[in-house]
Amino acid sequence: MLKYTLRRLLGMIPMLLLISIVVFFLALAMPGDPFSGEIDPNNTDPEYIEEMREKLGYNDPIHVQYYDWITGFVQGDFGKSVKYKIPVSDLVAQRLPNTLFLGIMSLVITYCFAFAMGMTAGRRPYTKLDHFIGGFNYMMLAIPSYIAGVFAIYFFSFQLGWFPFNGSVNIAVDEGTLDWWLSKVYHTFLPALVLGAMGTASYTQFLRNDIIDNSNKDFVRTARAKGTPESRIYNHHILRNSVIPLITFLGFDLVSLVNGALITETIFTYPGLGQLFLTSVQASDYPTLMTLTLMFSFIVLIGNLIADILYGIVDPRIRID
Amino acid sequence: MNNSQSNVNHEPLLQVKGLETAFSIEGKDHNAVDGVSFNVEKGKIVGIVGESGCGKSVMSLSVMNLLPKGIGKIRNGEVLFEGRNLEGLDDKEMNKIRGKDISMIFQEPMTSLNPVFTIGYQLEEVLHNHFKLSKKEATEKVVQLLSAVGISRAERIVDEYPHQLSGGMRQRVMIAMAIACQPKLLIADEPTTALDVTVQAQILELLQDIQKKNDMAIIFITHDLGVVSETCDEVIVMYAGRIVERTDVQRLFNSPKHPYTELLMGAIPRLEEEKDMLATIDGIVPSLTKMPEVGCRFANRCPKAMKECTTVTPKLAKNEEGHEVACLLYETSRPEEEVLR
């Protein structure tokens, strides 16, 4: 398995290099540059802007620009954010914990709901309860997160006043204390719920269908024939088989843990990577944009790798060597 | 082989009385097993023979109360095990019997084991279902069982997964699982159909060995008459959900009475005869929805069919030798009013 993992990791290098080229040229192809919007052309000497352009290397041939950037990048120098004027690595380090926190919380919410509903529905297929769960899930899936987010803020924050509608933590509380953590959970709950509810539908229906599918399998008949209680058959024999296809989803979810939720984070003004990504696109903040994109690509690859390794662990028929 | 000497005061191990099992197809119930009655004596092997779709498997699932929920149900009749009616027992009560007093092995050893659990784990489960055992005791017992079914490297097999074993080995594991609690009755639903011929013979031998050792009764469901002749004491021939003939194995092979049985025997290839074409029975078993209401269900395929075969339903009746048959060729099979007329 170690050999397999190493081989996969090595295989990622050319892939990432290709991605970096594509991303770099796409970013440069966007209209404007970091100066547009930041500097008022009417108030500033055009010669000065031109001078700065020259100094910062924006007038160099594209391949030279790319070379300058990528050599720095592989040495761990991700550049300085044009917008925030601090190193990109610091910027990412600031935002990453928030995003991870939101991602993990929403994933926990998704899993709790999905397993509870999927197992209930799968055990009682085509009953009223099953149809209700299915209907509820498809409705949740059909509501886009920007609408769900706005409604959640309206009801739970404005009308009921249960949850805050922005930020990730109460800044008056000392970092690291229990209160600080509780405040974080409190601030993250609503966006996590909106985000988590979205993923629940696919998990639930997948799990339900797979449980129904597996409940007709011969091994279930065998388990019954040896006097195994029905609840154990469902919660053990069938469920253990039905989680296998869900691993594919888990691979994607690992990505979204870090990716951040662009829309949800923006609506809740939650300072995570998704929001950072959006502002860096708007401000043509090349260093930040490129770093984030490459990081996300890397994590997609890692997520897939983890999913593949997990397959081998969960399903004994799949051997990874 | 004097099996039918059931004396009056002794009770058969299993009594099936007028069993009717129906499947609901498009809202209508259709009987897949239609009024089947038979007994299984302690320590005997009863063969149930018939083509695919004759209701053999459905009958065995009815005995175990394992019919697919919501689709199949027992409409009528009783299943008495040691005098106790299994019909109407709830799952909890039934689970105490399944795997312990009555156990079952199936046709498909490839899919009958759970792919994600180890062999040892699946065998231990049946022990834990019925006995209080420590983990260590259970493991020891499992190794013992695996050795008993002729698996030589039992200690290693317990940690392996089903996909690592061959079909024959898996069927041995299934047998080990079925005999783990020393059941009084084993229902073997085509246990050798999916196996190689050489492996088939080994599995049959194993089943017979265990049967003798444990004094266990077996219901042996098969469509292979050759297997029946080698293993069974008594044979029941089923066609389209009904019993058409029942007798002990020698009498059946020496003098089959029902035309269906005769044709089945004709379809057994024999080494000593040279034949270009294997004899077959034309047509197929009518599907559940197209079952004729009256008359003999085999009439449309029967070479000896008479006019009245489609209008008069034959009844299963014993002749003076104790050979039961349901065919209008024999006077005993005519319904009472017919005989009187």
From TrEMBL, chain A:
<keyword id="KW-0813">Transport</keyword>
<keyword id="KW-0472">Membrane</keyword>
<feature type="transmembrane region" description="Helical">
    <location>
        <begin position="143"/>
        <end position="165"/>
    </location>
</feature>
<feature type="transmembrane region" description="Helical">
    <location>
        <begin position="9"/>
        <end position="30"/>
    </location>
</feature>
<feature type="transmembrane region" description="Helical">
    <location>
        <begin position="100"/>
        <end position="122"/>
    </location>
</feature>
<keyword id="KW-1133">Transmembrane helix</keyword>
<comment type="similarity">
    <text>Belongs to the binding-protein-dependent transport system permease family.</text>
</comment>
<dbReference type="InterPro" id="IPR035906">
    <property type="entry name" value="MetI-like_sf"/>
</dbReference>
<dbReference type="Pfam" id="PF19300">
    <property type="entry name" value="BPD_transp_1_N"/>
</dbReference>
<feature type="transmembrane region" description="Helical">
    <location>
        <begin position="243"/>
        <end position="268"/>
    </location>
</feature>
<dbReference type="InterPro" id="IPR045621">
    <property type="entry name" value="BPD_transp_1_N"/>
</dbReference>
<feature type="transmembrane region" description="Helical">
    <location>
        <begin position="185"/>
        <end position="207"/>
    </location>
</feature>
<dbReference type="GO" id="GO:0005886">
    <property type="term" value="C:plasma membrane"/>
</dbReference>
<keyword id="KW-0812">Transmembrane</keyword>
<feature type="transmembrane region" description="Helical">
    <location>
        <begin position="288"/>
        <end position="314"/>
    </location>
</feature>
<protein>
    <submittedName>
        <fullName>Peptide ABC transporter permease</fullName>
    </submittedName>
</protein>
<dbReference type="InterPro" id="IPR000515">
    <property type="entry name" value="MetI-like"/>
</dbReference>
<dbReference type="GO" id="GO:0055085">
    <property type="term" value="P:transmembrane transport"/>
</dbReference>
<feature type="domain" description="ABC transmembrane type-1">
    <location>
        <begin position="96"/>
        <end position="307"/>
    </location>
</feature>
<keyword id="KW-1003">Cell membrane</keyword>
<dbReference type="Pfam" id="PF00528">
    <property type="entry name" value="BPD_transp_1"/>
</dbReference>
TrEMBL record, chain B:
<keyword id="KW-0067">ATP-binding</keyword>
<dbReference type="GO" id="GO:0015833">
    <property type="term" value="P:peptide transport"/>
</dbReference>
<keyword id="KW-0547">Nucleotide-binding</keyword>
<keyword id="KW-0813">Transport</keyword>
<dbReference type="InterPro" id="IPR003439">
    <property type="entry name" value="ABC_transporter-like_ATP-bd"/>
</dbReference>
<dbReference type="InterPro" id="IPR003593">
    <property type="entry name" value="AAA+_ATPase"/>
</dbReference>
<feature type="domain" description="ABC transporter">
    <location>
        <begin position="14"/>
        <end position="265"/>
    </location>
</feature>
<dbReference type="GO" id="GO:0005886">
    <property type="term" value="C:plasma membrane"/>
</dbReference>
<dbReference type="InterPro" id="IPR050388">
    <property type="entry name" value="ABC_Ni/Peptide_Import"/>
</dbReference>
<dbReference type="InterPro" id="IPR013563">
    <property type="entry name" value="Oligopep_ABC_C"/>
</dbReference>
<protein>
    <submittedName>
        <fullName>Peptide ABC transporter ATP-binding protein</fullName>
    </submittedName>
</protein>
<comment type="similarity">
    <text>Belongs to the ABC transporter superfamily.</text>
</comment>
<dbReference type="InterPro" id="IPR017871">
    <property type="entry name" value="ABC_transporter-like_CS"/>
</dbReference>
<dbReference type="GO" id="GO:0016887">
    <property type="term" value="F:ATP hydrolysis activity"/>
</dbReference>
<keyword id="KW-0472">Membrane</keyword>
<keyword id="KW-1003">Cell membrane</keyword>
<dbReference type="InterPro" id="IPR027417">
    <property type="entry name" value="P-loop_NTPase"/>
</dbReference>
<dbReference type="Pfam" id="PF00005">
    <property type="entry name" value="ABC_tran"/>
</dbReference>
<dbReference type="GO" id="GO:0005524">
    <property type="term" value="F:ATP binding"/>
</dbReference>
<dbReference type="Pfam" id="PF08352">
    <property type="entry name" value="oligo_HPY"/>
</dbReference>
